[in-house]
Specification:
The protein is an alpha/beta fold. Helices cover about 40% and strands about 15% of the residues. Helix 2 packs parallel to helix 4. The two termini are about 35 Å apart.
């Protein structure tokens, strides 16, 4: 990305990762991650148009004429939604991705970085999972619609590269959290869901009860760390094959560690326990960040407790207006 005018279009710009990229672009002063001279960043929201519809997607590309695209827009949801609406998750994401990639080719976009998910990996696999395993078997039955929709981005990237020479790649983050998350008690991921639950327990003077034993392990990545890695991928990563963006195996934390960090950040003094009659879900889904570390051996991730503290503070300050 040279000094000439670059227009970087971020689809899904109002979500967790989009907002984090915007924060880094505006606040990071380093040459590697911060905004560079001659760059114009455009953060799209659903108000700008429906990316499932070719004419609306085309109008966006015609309006902004992007030179680079970070593609985050997707139909997403929690486990229950994924199980109930498999066709919708497959079809809507296929439509979004197809339009974004096809118009990126038509408008001669220099590079596209799309966001995948660790749920795309085969259900039956060995750990740690790495980038070579994406297509080694079917994904978990519970969300095969969403998972296949996302997997196909990797197939499309390779096909666009082979047939047209397009520089389209993708990244696979682990569990992302941070400001601007979805804090719904019904349909959110574990960390924002527990944050909201603990906040209400403190507010109402009721016990804070976490479902399950607290033993399962997960790799969490702070959205602002992930945002820096997205910007690095856009500027410096040269492969078409995907790259996992994650903390290392040694930085896996248990759900109990997550709950402890939230209790501390919320300053919750009440009764805090685990309901062991509730199902735990998968014990671990460890991903290898070896490929990332070969490229960026000195990258510093925000310590987990500090990242949780910043996220909880943002949630408390924005409680009235945040997604919940």
């Amino acid at each position: 990305m040279s000094g000439e005018e670059s227009v970087i279009l971020v689809t899904g710009g109002s979500g967790l990762v989009g907002k984090a990229i915007q924060w880094v672009v505006e606040n990071d002063k380093s040459e590697r991650f911060g905004k560079r001279p001659g760059e114009k960043w455009v953060f799209l929201t659903s108000k700008d148009g429906d990316l499932r519809k070719p004419d609306e997607a085309k109008a966006i590309f015609e309006k902004y004429k992007p030179t680079h695209v970070i593609h985050l827009a997707a139909m997403v949801g929690g486990l229950f939604k994924n199980m109930k609406y498999k066709l919708d998750f497959l079809r809507q994401n296929l439509l979004i991705n197809d339009n974004v990639l096809e118009f990126s080719k038509e408008y001669e976009v220099k590079k596209v970085v799309s966001c995948l998910s660790t749920c795309i990996f085969p259900d039956k696999t060995t750990y740690p999972i790495d980038e070579t395993m994406v297509h080694n078997g079917p994904p978990h039955e519970s969300n095969f619609g969403y998972a296949h929709g996302k997997r196909l981005i990797d197939i499309q990237n390779r096909a666009y590269h082979e047939q047209y020479g397009c520089n389209f790649t993708s990244v696979i983050p682990t569990n992302v959290f941070g400001p601007h998350d979805n804090y719904s008690l019904e349909d959110s991921h574990v960390l924002p869901g527990l944050t909201h639950k603990c906040y209400l327990a403190k507010k109402n003077g009721t016990p804070f009860v976490v479902g399950g034993t607290g033993k399962p392990l997960r790799q969490f990545i702070y959205s602002r760390d992930l945002a820096k890695l997205f910007i690095w991928t856009l500027r410096e990563y040269q492969e078409i094959d995907p790259i996992i963006l994650s903390v290392g195996e040694k930085d896996e934390v248990s759900i109990k560690d997550v709950a402890d960090a939230i209790v501390k950040a919320v300053d919750f003094q009440g009764d805090y326990s685990f309901d062991t009659s509730r199902a735990d879900g998968q014990y671990k889904k460890t991903a290898s960040n070896e490929k990332l570390m070969k490229y960026l051996p000195d990258f510093e991730f925000t310590p987990f407790d500090q990242a949780v503290k910043e996220s909880v503070e943002w949630f408390v300050e924005n409680y009235e207006t945040c997604r919940k």
